[in-house]
Amino acid sequence: MNYLKTMNLPNKLTLLRVLLIPLFLFFLFISKGIFRFLPLIIFIGAAVTDAIDGYIARRDHLITDFGKFMDPLADKLLTAAAFIAFVEIGYLSSWIVVLIISREFLISGFRTLAASKGVTIAANKWGKVKTIFQMVLIIVILMDYTGFMGFVSPSIIPLIIITVLLTIISGATYIYDNLNVIK
Q1: CA 151 from chain center: how many Å?
Q2: How far is CA 18 from CA 14, 59, 108, 132, in A?
Q3: Residue 81 CA to chain centroid, in angstroms?
Q4: Measuring CA to CA, how many Å separate 129 from each of 43, 123, 133, 137, 163?
Q5: What pLDDT shows up at residue 141?
Q6: Consecutive sets of 10 residues in the chain, 183 residues long: mean pLDDT of each?
Q7: Helices (H), ranges, the chain
């Protein structure tokens, strides 16, 4: 508990994002009526903490090893939890989710390999765009699931296709741009 007291605000926000995942999943599967909005609100809140913690960490020079490790992990856990849940509730095919999660494992492994060689690899623009589209896709699916938007699920297929393509392109570009790590 003392460690939690000594954590800086960005790290506390990152930890909060991880703790919101089970709450998000709980309400996604049990919510009825008006409470069906809770998973959407929780996910948006968790996504906002990602933007805020990064901003505060850079602005106030509060970048820590914990934050470098946990922030991207928290993002991956949050999006993976949502995508896996969407298979369960029938919004996404499992092959799409496997592809998205496989890309994340591949790039995380690649970053670990680079780190073992003393190389830090920053996220590229494709990865950032991919993350934005993944978050937007999750929010749109949640909006449809809650009944907030009056569209039929098949109308989100173009967004799913774009997200899958960006997932593939960002992963391939990331590896291609950093092949020297493997050599």
Answers
A1: 24
A2: 7, 22, 18, 19
A3: 9
A4: 19, 10, 6, 12, 9
A5: 92
A6: 80 94 94 83 93 90 86 92 95 96 91 82 86 93 80 78 96 90 76
A7: 2-6, 9-30, 38-59, 65-88, 94-116, 125-146, 157-177
d(CA 81, CA 25): 8
Q: Distance between CA 40 and CA 14 in Å, rounded?
A: 18
CATH architecture of 2-181: Up-down Bundle (1.20)
In the prediction, which pLDDT does 151 show? 60
Per DSSP, the three-state class of 121 is: coil
Cβ partners under 8 Å of residue 109, min gap 6:
none
| Residue 125, amino acid | K
The pTM for the full model equals 0.89
Radius of gyration of the chain (CA): 17
Cβ contacts of 20 within 8 Å, gap of 6 or more = 42, 45, 46, 49, 78
Tokens of 138: 């999750």
Residue 97 identity (one-letter amino acid) = V
Residue pair 110/175 in contact by the 8 Å Cβ criterion? yes
Q: Which of 70, 54, 51, 57 is nearest to 135 (CA)?
A: 51
Q: Cα(42)–Cα(142) distance, rounded to whole angstroms?
A: 11
